[in-house]
From TrEMBL:
PANTHER family: LIPOXYGENASE HOMOLOGY DOMAIN-CONTAINING PROTEIN 1, PROTEIN CBG12474. Residues 1-77, 90-191 form the PLAT domain. InterPro entries: Inner_ear_hair_cell_LOXHD, PLAT/LH2_dom, PLAT/LH2_dom_sf. Gene3D superfamilies: PLAT/LH2 domain (2.60.60.20). Pfam families: PLAT (PF01477). SUPFAM superfamilies: Lipase/lipooxygenase domain (PLAT/LH2 domain) (SSF49723). This is Putative lipoxygenase-likey domain-containing protein 1-like.
C-alpha cells in the first residue's frame, strides 16, 4: 500500500485507530479497549501521491459500541468517495553527508531544490530530526516530487540562522547512488 497519508476529521476518545487497505475499498476502525472509545468521523481523506490520487470519504458516523449502530469499524468504498486526480509523485532518496571535521554540524534551517529537464521543485525545508546534519552523519532524506526527470542538479542551502549556523556539507548522493560533485557552487550538477 503506497498511501502517503490519511487525514481524519472528527472527534475521538481513547483507543487506537487504524486504516487498512486501499484497493477498491478501505477499512477504518479502532480497537475499542477504553471506556471512552467513541470516535465520530466526519470525513476521511486519503492521498496516494505515486498514483496521483486523492480521495475524500464522507462518513458522518460514530465508531462506538454504545452509539449509533454499535460498529467500531467500517468499510469505505472508493466508488463512494470524491476523487481528485493530480500529477503523480515520484519517490526519491537523497543521502547528505556532513563532514567529519570540528564544528561541521548545523542548527540552521536546511533547504533543498531539485532541478530536472522538465522543471524544478519549490524549496523544500528538510526537518532537523534528532541528530540530522551533525558532524560525521549520513542522513537519508526521502522525498516525493513531480516527475521532472531526468534530474540535472540539486541545490542545498541554509538560512544562516541558529546558534551554530555554519555547516560543512561534504557531499550528497541521489537514490541511484550517484555522488554529486561539489564545485563550490550552490547547485551541484548530477553526473
Amino acid at each position: 500500500m503506497d498511501v502517503k497519508y490519511s487525514r481524519i476529521f472528527g472527534r475521538r476518545g481513547g483507543g487506537k485507530g487504524m486504516v487498512e487497505g486501499m484497493g477498491r475499498e478501505g477499512k477504518i476502525g479502532h480497537d475499542g479497549v477504553t471506556p471512552t472509545e467513541g470516535w465520530f468521523i466526519e470525513e476521511l481523506e486519503v492521498d496516494i501521491p505515486t498514483k496521483g490520487k486523492h480521495y475524500s470519504f464522507p462518513c458522518k458516523r460514530w465508531f462506538s459500541r454504545d452509539k449509533d449502530d454499535g460498529q467500531i469499524a467500517r468499510v469505505l468504498v472508493v466508488e463512494d468517495a470524491q476523487a481528485m486526480d493530480y500529477k503523480p509523485k515520484v519517490p526519491h532518496e537523497v543521502t547528505i553527508f556532513t563532514g567529519d571535521v570540528q564544528n561541521a554540524g548545523t542548527d540552521a534551517k536546511i533547504t533543498m531544490t531539485v532541478f530536472g529537464a522538465n522543471g524544478y521543485t519549490p524549496d523544500m525545508v528538510l526537518d532537523k530530526l534528532e541528530d540530522r546534519f551533525e558532524r560525521g552523519r549520513e542522513d537519508v532524506i526521502k522525498i516525493e516530487i513531480e516527475d521532472i526527470a531526468p534530474l540535472k542538479k540539486i541545490r542545498i542551502g541554509h538560512d544562516g540562522k541558529g546558534s551554530r549556523p555554519d555547516w560543512f556539507l561534504e557531499k550528497d548522493r541521489d537514490d541511484r547512488k550517484n555522488d554529486l560533485t561539489l564545485c563550490g557552487e550552490v547547485g551541484y550538477p548530477l553526473p
